[in-house]
Each structure stands twice: as C-alpha cells, then as structure tokens.
Design goal:
Peroxisomal Thiolase, Chain A, domain 1; alpha/beta; single chain; globular; about 35% helix; five-stranded mixed β-sheet; 11 helices
C-alpha cells in the first residue's frame, strides 16, 4: 500500500476592497513611491475597513469560496486551523469563529501563531492528522488584519503590511502527491528585533501602553532582513537536498511575501529563475500568514498535477521553514 499523504485539493482567498497605494502613503508619512519600491517591491496593499471587522471576516470569505470551488460540504470538515497574529480577540480562537460561521459543525478548531511562518506551520501540522489516519478533510486558513496593529506614522512598518486571507483544503490520498516533507525551525533570539511590546500577559494593556504606542508592530528592519535572507533560503535549500531535488525539478518557489530582496535571495540560493517564483507582493504587500495561500490562489490556474513546489517563510519570533508539496490536481 502506498503511503497515506495530505493532498491540497483546493484553494480559496479573499482580499478587502480598499487599496492603499504608495501615493497615498506619501501623504501620510515621509516616504516616496520610489523609496518603497526599491526597498520592498510593494506598489499597493489591501486594507479591511469598517466597524467590528476582524480577521475572521476575511477568513470566513476565503473558506466559503474554498467550499464553493471544491463542492465541499462544511459538515465534512474534521478540523479547521487558523494561522494568524491578529485574532479577533484573545479568546475564543478565531478558528472557532470561522468554523461556526461557515457551518463546519463537526470540526474542532484552533489557532496557530507563528507570525509569517504560520501557514506553513499549520500546513505541516494538519498533514500529520491526515497521515496518521485520524482525519480525512482539514481546512488550513492563513489570515491577518495587519492594519489593526500598524502605526501609520511609522514609515518603517506602515509601507510593508496589508490585510488578506487564504485557505486550502487538505484531503487524504494514497497517490504520490501532497505534503511530501518539511523543515521547520524557531529561535527566540528574534524577539528583540520583531515584536509587539504590550497587550500580552507580560505587559497587559493600560492607558500608558496605548499612549506610548506599544500595541503596534515593532521591527528593526536591518536585523530582520539579515536573518530572513539567510534562514529562509537555507530552509528551502535543505528541503530540496533532503528530497534530492534540483532547480530543474521545481515548478515554483512559493515564498512568503515579506520583501522582494529576500525573495530574490531565496530563489538565488535554490538556483531558481524569476519565472519560477510566485510573486504578488507588489499588489498585496506582506499579509503575514496569508501570503503563501494567496500566492497559491493567484497561481492556481498555472499549476498542474505533479508539480513540485517549495513553500518557504520567515517570521517574527523568529520562526522559519520550508514545505515540499507535490501538487495534487
């Protein structure tokens, strides 16, 4: 009998309607379109507007589209994992909210917080439930409303991030496709370089923390860039080595969309040309846990069964890693 694997059998996505352009940011902070493009490759990003609009709103829409495209009944889902750093609230989990709203009444659900690496952590975790025989159908959602934790007076961070959601359906298969291998790492040495200072149990919210803007993303760009370039590229290369893959074997690199220069460095380390790199950072910016599933959503029509994909990410924590996926449809 062939090995039981977790196959991606569908992709859904959602992006808010409002588009925040570089030209609009020029009016908000001391920056220019040229400066942003040169350092990040971003032209515009999507922002979720309106009252009581949390990450779950986008996650629900992505999952609903996923169910519609794959003709899946919500009752068939065994587990729903939501990968996010911007949950609707501390509890209940955003995954619980999404599962209930989409009608996944037979699923249990929980959140994973691994920052920008969240989706690949979630994908690897879900694959184990399927490979073990415990579950048949699992939804993994990557969603973040980064605009809710960004200081739009801080030009170092406000130019980078956007809002969005992507979701995949995983199903059991005995074909030689699906989640084939992964390499995941973390190291809290990154805490000082990329974090949100207040709002957790170490430093609960207070009038003082709000006044001092400690509920926004804090990032030391140069340090994060240095770690990201090295570790994301090494993780992708390691997964290739573990599976005896060469650049010629890879159909696409699916990189976390943090910065065009980091993406370029990862592709170079793998020996892969630009034509094999999924890219949408110019239109969406960094949507944190949503970037990789949104890439799959954008490029779905270009993929064919048996294509080898390397999904690679680097995030706050630090967290990083890569997943080898053989496309299943």
């Amino acid at each position: 009998m062939d090995k039981r694997r977790a196959a991606i059998t569908g992709v859904g996505g959602y992006l808010p309607e409002y588009i925040l352009t570089n030209q609009e940011l020029e009016k908000m902070v001391d920056t220019t379109n040229e400066w942003i493009l040169e350092r990040t490759g971003i032209k515009e990003r999507r922002i979720l507007k309106g009252e009581n609009q949390g990450s779950s709103v986008m996650g629900i829409k992505a999952v609903e589209e996923l169910f519609e495209k794959t003709k899946t009944s919500p009752e068939e889902i065994d587990l729903l994992i939501c990968c996010t750093v911007t949950p609707d609230m501390q509890f209940p989990a955003t995954a619980n909210i999404i599962a209930t709203e989409v009608g996944a009444v037979n699923a249990f659900s929980y959140d994973i917080n691994a920052a920008c690496s969240g989706f690949i952590y979630g994908l690897a975790t879900a694959a184990q439930f399927i490979e073990s025989g415990m579950h048949q159908k699992i939804v993994v959602v990557g969603v973040d409303k980064m605009s809710s934790i960004i200081d739009y007076e801080d030009r170092a961070t406000c130019i980078i991030f956007g809002d969005g959601a992507g979701a995949v359906l995983l199903e059991a298969t005995e074909e030689d496709t699906g989640v084939m291998d992964f390499h995941l790492r973390s190291d809290a040495i990154g805490e000082k370089h990329l974090h949100m200072k207040a709002g957790g149990s170490r430093k609960p919210a207070s009038a003082a923390t709000v006044a001092s803007k400690e509920h926004f993303v804090y990032q030391e760009g140069k340090a994060v860039f240095k770690f990201a370039v090295t570790n994301m590229a090494d993780a992708a290369y390691k997964v290739m080595q573990q599976n005896n893959l060469t650049a010629d074997d890879i159909a696409f690199l699916v990189p976390h969309q943090a910065n065009k220069r980091i993406i370029d460095a990862t592709a170079k380390r793998m020996g892969i040309g630009d034509e094999k790199v999924m890219l949408n950072i110019d239109r969406y910016g960094n949507t944190t846990a949503a970037t990789i599933p949104l890439c799959l959503w954008d490029y779905e029509s270009q993929l064919k069964k048996g294509d080898n994909l390397i999904l690679a990410a680097f995030g706050g924590g630090f967290t990083w890693g890569a997943v080898y996926v053989k496309w299943s449809y």
